[in-house]
Specification:
four-stranded mixed sheet, alpha+beta
């Protein structure tokens, strides 16, 4: 039994999701207390409960404490089963976080799986669909596995109702570790705005403000495809493609923010990333740590990446990973570039 304190580090839902994923992937039972103790509303909310139920379904786990508001959970998985699954969040909670929970164990299953997800696809405080499709999925492929994502319908807060299909194909053998130390030559940049159900001037102003600040031209600006009945919603995305990696940054509109404020918030994040020579930004670093830890464990070889910032979120994730896998992280930080190395223990 792996005993975890949910108030560890940043004390959020990532501790639960990573521990569920690795419990199912390794077959180690899990006991976790003080779930989301660092949040204003601690305990399991709908999207967290959806992650628990999804992890239980793919592994036939026995679960105690899987109720709304619960701050303790016991999770005893069985063997992970590849197959076709449907997971739904009745609220606008992020279904992309459910995908992140079941992906690691299904990557280690004996056959391909198809996962149908419904809920929020573009949520604040969660990786949006386009981040996973453009930035994360290519890194899964570099491990020798495959992840194909299809967006059927956008889902924004508070309505939700998004639909995503994911095809997960395990590697033919062990996952293959790789180093990602530099982003490489810049290939392209573009911005797009998904704003279904909002007046046309909102995305026009957001894109115009971003273009003016970044020096981007008209062909780099796009109005994203989303049907009116998929809104209201407002997600401004910037995609930066490099030789070795693609990064996606997102800002979400709110009633209290002007279109210009939304754009300037995204510009600040883009400039912070561009000041660094690191391969990935802080959000992708968090996701890459788990992928490379699985590969270092299976491939029995150390690997590393560089990032522009190591957040408390990433540090906490690394600490949880070390509780389940025989790997060790070493983090070296400087002002412009940070190096994260994971080695078999």
């Amino acid at each position: 039994m792996v005993d975890l304190d949910g108030s560890l580090g940043e004390g959020g839902g990532q501790i639960l999701r990573t521990s569920l994923a690795l419990s199912a992937a390794t077959g180690q039972p899990l006991s976790i207390e003080k779930i989301r103790a660092g949040r204003a509303k601690p305990g399991l909310m709908r999207q967290h409960l959806a992650c628990v139920n999804a992890a239980a379904e793919i592994s036939g786990a026995k679960v105690e404490g899987a109720q709304l508001g619960s701050q303790s959970l016991r999770f005893a998985p069985g063997p992970v089963r590849a197959g076709e699954y449907r997971f739904s969040i009745s609220s606008a909670g992020s279904c992309m976080l459910v995908l992140q929970t079941v992906l690691p164990p299904l990557l280690l299953a004996g056959a391909a799986s198809r996962v149908h997800l419904s809920g929020g696809t573009h949520n604040p405080m969660a990786p949006p669909f386009h981040f996973l499709e453009r930035a994360f999925a290519p890194l899964v492929r570099r491990l020798g596995a495959d992840l194909q994502l299809t967006l059927r319908r956008c889902g924004f807060y508070p309505a939700g109702g998004g639909e995503v299909e994911a095809t997960i194909v395990p590697a033919a053998g062990a996952l293959q570790p790789f180093d990602l130390m530099a982003r490489g030559e810049h290939r392209s940049s573009h911005a797009e705005c998904l704003a279904p159900g909002l007046p046309r001037h909102v995305p026009t102003r957001e894109l115009g403000t971003l273009a003016g600040a970044m020096g981007w031209s008209g062909e780099q600006l796009r109005f994203g495809t989303a049907r009116q009945n998929e809104g209201p919603g407002n997600a401004l995305l910037a995609t930066l493609a490099y030789e070795h990696v693609t990064e996606v940054f997102t800002a979400f509109g709110e009633k209290s923010l002007s279109a210009e404020q939304v754009a300037h918030g995204l510009v600040k994040e883009l400039r912070e990333f561009q000041k660094s020579e690191a391969a990935v930004g802080p959000h992708l670093a968090d996701q890459l740590a788990l992928l490379l830890a699985l590969a270092a464990w299976q491939g029995k070889k150390a690997c590393a990446f560089t990032c522009s910032e190591v957040t408390e979120h990433t540090r906490t994730n690394c600490a949880v990973i070390e509780r389940f896998l025989p790997v060790r992280f070493a983090i070296v930080e400087s002002r412009q570039i940070c190096t994260v190395r994971v080695s078999p223990a």
